[in-house]
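Two proteins were folded this term; both appear here.
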Amino acid sequence: MAERLEDAKPTRMELLRLKKRKLLAQTGHDLLSEKKDALINEFFKVVDQRREFRAKLEKMLSPSYRALIQAEMSMGRNEISSIAKGVNKMEGVEIEADNIMGVKVPLMKAEIPEERFYGFADTSVKLDEAVSKFRETLKTTIKLAEIEGRLDKLADEIEKAKRRVNSLEYIYIPRLDATIKYIERQIDEREREDFFRRKKIKALMEQKET
């Protein structure tokens, strides 16, 4: 499209081309608006999930630490520290891609060691309880991190959709409208001039015949 109205070609072909472009722009605007609204709905669903898992994690942390403190009281902090050094390290978190409304979001998977890393002798049942609780707490923590990542991705996509919708609604389509109206005025003015020119020529020819 021409940057200035004066640069637009005042022809019917150009007018038809711009009207088609406007129709495509309006269709794109409507589709992007629908996508933006759908993404916002999904965003708030994930916000609810985050609230749920945050509450769940907070609820899990207190009994987990309580069990660890009781194990330390029963076995001694040095013994707990010594056992902790023998824990098999988690290999890391595998991040795959999931899809929400066409947006790629993280799907996190982690192999959390389930095997016992200490012997039964000279250990407290409270240690077993603490280990079990912290395993579940870690799983919930990873899930919460996944949800936070999903929120970030959705928020970015919503912002992109908003910018595109606003650009079409407030810049691109109004410019097309202004150019279309300018060309229509130019064509109307040219047709009026042609009409009066033909009328004047006809009058002159009639005068010559008389």
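Next, the second protein.
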Amino acid sequence: MKRTKMTKFERLLYTFAIFLAAITPILIVFSQATLSKINYDVEEMKEKIDDQQKKNESLTMEINELASLDKIQEIAKDQGLSYNSSNIKTIDGSD
């Protein structure tokens, strides 16, 4: 039985095929690990966004409470100010 010699191209082709067969599982595992890390980061960011939205809602409610007429009148009274409707002037913008 006579053995035929492989050409340089065939040897290169087989080497490349073996290299691909060896590296493909490593690349798959690496890409899955990267995807998992990205998903984890996305979920973490969603939690931070939810927390910030809750803080924003709380602050908006606090602003509304502090800006209410009753609260303003209470603070004005504590500061010695009083409401005098005779000092209020209405300006009509239409000519």
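The mean pLDDT is 89. Residues 9 and 15 are 10 Å apart (CA to CA). These notes refer to the second protein only.
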